[in-house]
């Protein structure tokens, strides 16, 4: 197995050549779009362009930067994934500026979780770009601070550290060998406002000795990554305590978890238990507040994050989207949706600023009206953070999980 090293040799040849020499077993792939005569790459840019459905001559001659960037990225993805499927990939390292880092990160995000990934970038800390680089990938960003040009002593020091990092990471056991084959893997969404419930559920499931529970922070990124990992076959079941990213996506909130949230368990046919924690609040960026948002009931989580109460009209709309997604999922998956009637999160309790059980009922009644008969709906006169409610979550999960066997 080798470390795949991705760089643009037309602009980063000298530092790329140096870094390759520091890594004992690497395959250098050139994703350059500019014309150059030299060929230090194991996988030249011409091969990448061909894998992307074009030719290097067309790429070099084109002035449509967005188009040729996509061609080279697609080609690099194809080659990297072929190496991975053939068992030849022990890690990936990339070297780039803004464009190069975006291209390399797209390639890395196409490779499954667990394969070591490091991007050495002079733009790693630029506002707005770092989150785009990482996205839902398990990618390490190494900020060079100095420009990636020439071979100064400072740059060599950065490249030396990166070489040691990727070599060390590449020696880590692959996911397949660290997964406990005697336990089922369960994905669990959690968020600060349902942390107590999540802890109860995790502990109770793990105490059975049958399950390994993997938590995902449902803040819009990790829960989106969870959906990807469900499709890749990492999990045997899902306890989705915090599916608020579905509504946030519709309403333009910061926890938006993308268009496929809550769908992939149904695609692979694994059981789900769902609660509505965080569904009755939203967190739009303050710079995008609508006039009525300033009048909404709210809860300040901290000085950076404010949760606004979702109104009845919005609750109905979000419930309709939940029903649409889960009705489709119910074709292959067993689903239980559990509602706690005394509050949906730690900030939603009698006397709190956002507590509106009558508005929550709009969601419940809309969902009940539209839900497929195969979806089991339970209501309990409990608060979501009560240990007794966590017991109900575990009880229903074990029931449907046993029925899957």
List the helices and strands and how they pair.
Layout: E1 2-7, H1 9-22, E2 26-30, H2 45-51, H3 56-61, H4 65-85, E3 89-96, H5 98-109, E4 117-121, H6 130-134, E5 140-143, H7 153-170, H8 175-178, E6 184-190, H9 195-207, E7 211-217, H10 222-231, E8 237-240, H11 245-251, H12 264-268, E9 272-274, E10 281-282, E11 298-300, E12 306-309, H13 312-329, E13 335-340, H14 357-370, E14 376-380, H15 387-404
Parallel strand pairs: 1-2, 1-3, 3-4, 4-5, 6-7, 6-8, 8-9, 9-13, 13-14
Antiparallel strand pairs: 10-12, 11-12
Can you put this structure into words, describing what you see?
The structure is a single chain. With 405 residues, this protein is α/β, with parallel strands linked by helices. It folds into 2 domains: 2-174, Rossmann fold (3-Layer(aba) Sandwich), CATH 3.40.50; 179-404, Rossmann fold (3-Layer(aba) Sandwich), CATH 3.40.50.12030. Helices cover 42% and strands 17% of the residues. The chain has helices at 9-22, 45-51, 56-61, 65-85, 98-109, 130-134, 153-170, 175-178, 195-207, 222-231, 245-251, 264-268, 312-329, 357-370, 387-404, and strands spanning 2-7, 26-30, 89-96, 117-121, 140-143, 184-190, 211-217, 237-240, 272-274, 281-282, 298-300, 306-309, 335-340, 376-380. α4 (65-85) runs parallel beside α5 and α9 crosses α15.
Quickly give the structural class. Answer: alpha/beta
Order of helices and strands: EHEHHHEHEHEHHEHEHEHHEEEEHEHEH
What is the approximate shape? elongated
CATH architecture of the largest domain: 3-Layer(aba) Sandwich
**CATH fold call of the largest domain:** Rossmann fold
What portion of the residues fall into strands of 2 or more residues?
A: 15-25%
């Amino acid at each position: 197995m080798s470390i795949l090293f991705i760089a643009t040799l037309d602009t980063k040849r000298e530092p790329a050549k140096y870094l390759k020499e520091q890594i004992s077993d690497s395959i250098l792939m050139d994703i350059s779009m500019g014309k150059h005569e030299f060929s230090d790459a194991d996988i030249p840019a011409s091969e990448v362009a061909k894998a992307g459905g074009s030719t290097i001559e067309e790429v070099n001659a084109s002035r449509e930067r967005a188009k040729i960037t996509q061609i080279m990225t697609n080609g690099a993805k194809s080659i990297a994934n072929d190496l991975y499927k053939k068992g030849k990939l022990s890690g990936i390292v990339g070297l780039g500026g803004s464009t190069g880092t975006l291209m390399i990160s797209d390639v890395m995000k196409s490779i499954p979780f667990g394969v070591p990934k490091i991007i050495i970038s002079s733009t790693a800390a630029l506002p707005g770009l770092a989150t785009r680089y990482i996205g839902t990938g398990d990618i390490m960003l190494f900020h060079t601070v100095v420009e990636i040009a020439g071979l100064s002593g400072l740059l060599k020091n950065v490249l030396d550290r990166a070489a040691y990092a990727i070599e060390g990471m590449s020696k880590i056991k692959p996911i397949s060998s660290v997964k406990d084959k005697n336990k089922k893997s369960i994905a669990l969404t959690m968020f600060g406002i349902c942390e107590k419930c999540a802890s109860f559920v995790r502990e109770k499931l793990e105490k059975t000795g049958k399950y390994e529970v993997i938590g995902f922070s449902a803040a819009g990124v990790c829960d989106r990554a969870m959906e990807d990992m469900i499709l890749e076959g990492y999990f045997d079941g899902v306890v989705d305590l915090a599916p608020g990213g579905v509504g946030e996506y519709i309403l333009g909130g910061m926890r938006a978890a993308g268009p496929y949230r809550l769908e992939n368990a149904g695609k692979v046919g694994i059981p789900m238990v769902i609660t509505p924690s965080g569904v009755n609040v939203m967190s739009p960026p303050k710079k995008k507040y609508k006039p009525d948002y300033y009048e909404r009931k709210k809860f300040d989580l901290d000085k950076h994050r404010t949760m606004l109460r979702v109104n009845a009209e919005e609750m109905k709309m979000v419930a309709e989207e939940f029903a649409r997604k889960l009705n489709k999922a119910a074709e292959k998956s067993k689903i239980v949706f559990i509602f706690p009637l005394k509050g949906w999160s730690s900030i939603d309790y009698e006397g709190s600023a956002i507590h509106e059980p009558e508005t929550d009922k709009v969601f419940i009644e809309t969902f009940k009206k539209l839900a497929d008969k195969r979806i089991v709906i339970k209501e309990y006169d409990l608060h979501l953070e009560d240990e007794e409610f966590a017991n109900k979550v575990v009880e229903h999960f074990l029931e449907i999980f046993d029925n899957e066997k």
